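Our working data are protein records whose layout never changes between entries. Instead of coordinates, the fold is spelled out as a row of discrete tokens. Here is such a record, shown just as it appears in the course material:
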Amino acid sequence: MEDRLQLEVHDLEVQVLTGIYSEETHLPQPLRISLTVDLDCPEHYTPDTPLSASKNYLDLKHAATVLPEGVHFTLIEGVADHICDTLFLQDQRVRRVKVKIVKLAIAEEGEAIGITLVRHRR
């Protein structure tokens, strides 16, 4: 069994151009994005282990919040895949990315409506 480190960034609210219906396609809509990233890790962490032995959490936040300007994602699945691709390209140690996206604008009574996409490095 291989050891893995899971980095997590949850509940980022991001305005994204997404949707298929006419009322969705002209303005960004709010999404709540959460990430869990499995990373190869060293055999042991000591008190003086440098950041290079892990990954900066801000890299995860950046992948989820800095999306291509002016690009309309028809499906939120496309947003999730873009985030996965970004994280895989950033760091060869990333083995698995789980992206959960909730469409906040369609919730009527606080329910969470959305998707979860899990991609593994190939």
